[in-house]
Amino acid sequence: MLLRGDRIEAVGEVPVDAGFAVDCAGKVVAPGFIDAHSHMDFFSASGDSGHFDSFTAQGVTTFVAGNCGFSPFGFAPGTKHRALLESSLFKAGRKTLDWNSFAEYTAVLDDLGLTHNFVHLVGHGAARTSLSGFEARPLGDAEYREMLEVLDRAMHEGAAGVSLGLQYKPGIFAKLEELDDVARLVKRHDKLLTVHAKAYSSFSGTYPMIPFGRAHNLKAIDDMLGVGRRTGVRLQFSHLIFVGSRTWKTVDEAIALFDRAIADGVDVCFDMFPYGCGATLLNTLLPEWFMAGMPEALHSPLAKARLRLEAEVGFRLVGFGYPQIQITNASCSKYDQYNGCFLPEISERVGMSHFDTMLDILDESNAEARVLFHDYYNDEIIERLMRHPAAIFASDSWPEPGGHQNPAAYGTFPKFLRTSRERKNIALEEAVYKMTGAAAKRFRLSERGEVREGYAADVTVFDWEGVRDQENEAGNASPVGIEHVFVNGKQIFDRGRISHVRGAGEVLRS
Ligand SMILES: [Zn+2]
Fold this sequence. Notes:
Layout: E1 2-4, E2 7-10, E3 28-31, E4 33-35, H1 41-44, H2 53-56, E5 60-65, H3 82-86, H4 102-112, E6 117-120, E7 122-123, H5 124-132, H6 141-156, E8 161-165, H7 176-188, E9 192-196, H8 216-231, E10 234-237, H9 251-263, E11 268-272, E12 278-281, H10 288-292, H11 301-318, E13 325-329, H12 343-350, H13 354-364, E14 370-373, H14 379-387, E15 391-393, H15 408-423, H16 428-434, H17 437-442, E16 459-462, E17 482-487, E18 490-494, E19 497-498
Helix pairs in contact: 5-6, 6-7, 7-8, 8-9, 12-13
The structure holds zinc ion.
Residues 67-68, 196, 238-239 line the site of zinc ion (ZN).
């Protein structure tokens, strides 16, 4: 294969007469990996290329960012809520979001020079926050129109679609009619609507509890497939996880729902990661009413008694509880020594009940403590979902600002390859396709995602027999078997050596 400038000039045997040669004998020469569900946009404007090292080492050349309703742009001009927008889960990246449009934001990126390619979705949550903050109410008529205008403008300027974050404030307050209107707007642009659904567990505080009613995660899938059926929008269901072991019995039906919708002509895919855990904040466990009463609620015997009862019932229904909570960054001096430990172990060491330990960590950290929740999947579910034709591979991860790391930020793509090699659930070609061509097709990235003459020279070379993730205590073990990575013809990885080549990557507008 011959790369010239930022393109693949020829595929197959080529004479080497100029430039330099890389020996790929016995290796797989693949398109550069595309992380189809990422939040790295919040890090790309920070000016610190080091944030991207763990992804470079996995062979990633392109990120699809702006997911789950969060994007670092897509705000109403003159918003009063900039502080809320800047204090997201990803605030370890860029601290201030001081621009007013997608065009202004990408101009900052172009000036800084990216090391990887970026595809940007505009967050419905961001647009809505910029208008009504986190207020639990429907938008007024003028706000509603402005929200749609903000999303419309970002798509005109090149955003690849809109993302919804229906488990987070303020997306959680949006009614189905609002989602339909957003979907119709995306459909008019012929772009993609991605959705972090309202529930991923069989029981969730985001839906009313009806005894023997439909599992909440299935109801959330019903809701979104309904939006797809009514509006004809192209739909991407984000990180199809099944939180808690009691939710796992819904896997068959969830898959059947997608299959039926696809058979009926709904254009829907989902993304997934290969780990049974995911990163978030500890406070996401708290119900709305308790959050609203923080921090006083942490010391109110009445509020605590109610919370304890609700937690016990909720945990039991979902099959999730304290043993599935791993503190990755306690974000306070009292508990930082326990970063990486699971809650029951910490509770034993400090001599308090599980419940009181959890509340104390929330209190000490100002509700900033970061966690990995476990039992999102088991291996069997991961292997099964990987085989599904609508599955696209993604990491849904970012580097944590200190503390224990999310292993997905280090090993996602090597782990997918390793699983397909060892478990033989899918062929090598299919695994590579789901992390390259399938994502390029889904997000309409022109001339990317394949090794083909004339296509962009995003290339990852790996050793099929040896490629694998690794594990360590801190969650930040580098994978092995990734050999070379090129972004638009520029080499950013050479057998373990990372080069921060600013300007190698581009913002891919559509
Ligand atoms: Zn999400």
